[in-house]
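Entry 14. Ran structure prediction on the chain below.
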Amino acid sequence: MARALVVGASLAGLRVAEAIRAGGFTGELVVVGDEPHLPYNRPPLSKEALAGEISHATLEYRRRASVTDAQWRLGVGAVGADLAARTVTLADGETLSFDGLAITTGVRARRLSLPGPAGGRHVVRTLEDAVALRAELVPSARLVVIGAGFIGCEVAATARGLGCTVDVVAPEQVPMQRPLGLELGAAMQRRHEAHGVRFHLGRLPKELLPNPDAAGRVGGLLLDDGSRLAADVVVEALGCLPNTEWLADQQPGYRLDLTDGVLTDGWMRARTNDGETLSEVVAAGDLARFPNGRYDDVPRRVEHWSIPTDTGKRAGQAVAAALTGGDLPDGPPFAPLPSFWSDQYGQRLQSFGALGLADEVRVRQGDPDAEFVAEYLRHGTRVGVLGVGMMPALLALRTELMTTPS
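Output, structure tokens:
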């Protein structure tokens, strides 16, 4: 019996598995994951889940009936693959063969090589990460967040709500500078400062300082200008790295382009360094680097909430076609509309499109220090919209983005 193997029990992996079944494949379906959990919702880990009780039961995704017969091999990740022989090796030494392979191993939190103690040092990527951090965010705890992107700012806002003191360190001019731009990033900084967060921008961390009263635990952070910040807890929120190392050692003709994630075509089929397409191997989710016909033909990784579902459905359809001998339908280029949200201080910042491609930002309505809607343009063409509140106006602009590709 033919086997479809999904490596990565993530949202992308779940959507691939469901799409494989929807595409008519009735053979064996196996999903492998390094975490002990069935697929769960990650964005709340730095938002509402971190503020309260964290459990897998409240975060687990509902699975379609079509994948009830799937074999879920959890708690053991992939450590190697031989794409020519069509096998994947797991951490426990077992080798699984496949006829179709979906790569959905996602990303991991980036860590700094900082000298100093490890106790009190955290990232937020997995359920276990969030549980461990939540236990330390007690009232009056001194938190230093390294990184002022969305995760860092969400953790900062949540920690302030829990009664912690918060300092944020980042090399940028304003928080969330890359996606939001200078004006709106500065406005978000003012929101945080109004809630008591202290920013140290244009600065880099140099060393974790020991806590003289607790061996092995952090007591502060030394910055590159010589200043010192007191800290009981340090969170590194510095973005992510694709989990592709297990794919690196391949025979000629099967060496994937792993320059930044897994390069794919518009059907999410993996591309080799030789420019060939492997029809039986696909990638989806945060590690997939694919062209989005909505913008241009440049392949990019997109770590937005909507992308695992969009790419997972596409990838699953491609695998099903390869396994059943079916044809992929003709149609327009793959053109998903990325979207994400960020909850900070009881307000939701919502985005649609590719803000990072813009070279100009215009506030269309409202006040950046209150509720507003802004559009992001590249060479005069709208590529994204962003809003805090004002949902009718924001959704109207989203509709325009969805009906008129850039």
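The radius of gyration is 22 Å. Will compare against last week's run tomorrow.
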